[in-house]
Amino acid sequence: MTEVTQSLEARYYTDPAIFENEKQGLFKKTWQFVVHASEIANVGDYFAFELAGESLFCVRDKAGNVRTYYNVCQHRAHEMVQGTGNTHVLVCPYHAWTYDWDGQMTSGPATKRVEGFDQKKVCLTSVRTENFNGFIFVNLDKNAASMDEWYPGVREELAAWVPQIASLQPQEYVAVPEKCNWKVSVENYSECYHCPSNHPTFIEGVVNPATYDIQPDPDGAKILRHKTQCQSLEKMTYDIDLESNEYAGRYQSWFLWPMFSFQCYPGNVLNTYHWLADDVDNCTAVRGWYTVDGEESQVIRELAVQDRETTVEEDVVLVESVQRGLKSSGYVPGPLVLDPRGHGVMSEHSIAALQSWMREAVE
Question: Are 158 and 230 members of one domain?
């Protein structure tokens, strides 16, 4: 008899020690989305953020590159910047130690009087940063492989599916707090076994559920690709031009482990999902919607509202119920539903792959 694949034990989603393990390990050793490049478009633009308990910031340098640093002065540890803004030079608010955009200290009050003081040896601590088709990602592991090694083929596939990607800018972000562990929300996103019974607008007005499939990368990269055809044109909830691109009549998403997904809706409409792990019992799911040069689009605005009021709201109810259920003494992990054909909307092959990555990250 073939042994069935069991779902993860509840502790992976409810144990504070496991969350702390992820915070100090997984979150610091994987590529994490920070900001769209257009939001720090000018020299000196900066954006402060938190990741895995660390305060960091991105800044655009004179050469037009985005650099990232730990948000801490090397003098006596005051934070360098807050929020977003623009600066001609990086100046610590505490004692006015000054750094260039390349992180090198350039001056400090009275420091030249200190015998042996060499400001050339004082630098902000830098962080690995990549621009991935206009999306800025960072990795706190200085020895991490590049994003193209982590996610082979995705950069090129996105450029083919969304030819306008280089000129896109965010029109709207929709941040939704969820009372669940981040993995519960990511799992929910990564299967459509629940779609027919929970997402009528999505499966009747956007995609064709009969063709929906989610597959792990065939070469073992930590990528899940969702693929399906669009719904029939008369049922679509928005107008699309099937002639605009060879992929215009299809939907695909690229989930990049552990917390980000590019989604291409029919009609070459790019949107994104990324997750913020707030604590063991809470996360924030953020949906991004983009237009060429950030121009106002009624279609995109209406899609964002439709998505928020249907699929997103429906999923919040589901994931929060799951988190409560994981804390029940009566829960025993059940078998995953794996279609022997290895594909189809009613199969959880994607969850089997995802949970193996989750287990690996902890153990």
Answer: yes
Q: Is residue 174 domain-shared with residue 280, that is, in the same domain?
A: yes
**Is there a domain that residue 63 lies in?**
yes
Residues 67 and 194 occupy one common structural domain: no
pLDDT of residue 3: 75
Report pTM: 0.94
279 and 191: one domain? yes
Nearest to 67 by CA among 109, 111, 35: 35
Name the token pair of 294.
């950030």
What is the distance between the alpha carbons of residues 251 and 91, in angstroms, rounded to a whole number? 46
127, 236: one domain:
no
Tally of domains within the chain? 2
Nearest to 69 by CA among 27, 139, 125, 28: 125
Q: Measured at the alpha carbon of residue 286, what is the angle toward residues 317 and 337, in degrees to the nearest 5?
A: 50
- Boundaries of domain holding 129: 32-139
Does residue 28 register a pLDDT over 90? yes
Q: Note the pLDDT tens digit of each residue in 94-129.
A: 999 999 999 999 999 999 899 989 999 999 999 999
Would you place residue 244 in the very low, low, confident or very high pLDDT band (cuts 50, 70, 90)? confident
pLDDT in tens, 75-85: 999 999 999 99
Per the CB < 8 A criterion, the answer to whether 253 and 261 are in contact is yes
Give the pLDDT band of residue 251 (cuts 50, 70, 90).
confident
Domain assignment present for 6 = no
Residues 91 and 44 in one domain: yes
CATH of the domain at 249: 3.90.380.10
- Collect all residues with Cβ–Cβ distance below 8 Å to 253 and sequence separation of at least 6: 225, 226, 261, 262, 263, 264
The span from the CA of 214 to the CA of 227, in Å, is 6
Three-class secondary structure of residue 300 per DSSP: helix
> Residue 207 — pLDDT band, cuts 50, 70, 90?
low
Phi, psi of 195 (to 5 degrees): -65, -50
Confidence of residue 205 (pLDDT cuts 50, 70, 90): low
Q: Which residues of 38-66 are buried (b: 16+ CB within 10 A; e: fewer)?
A: bebeeebbbbbbebbeeebbbbbeeeeeb
Going 58 to 170 to 268 to 182, the CA torsion angle's sign is positive
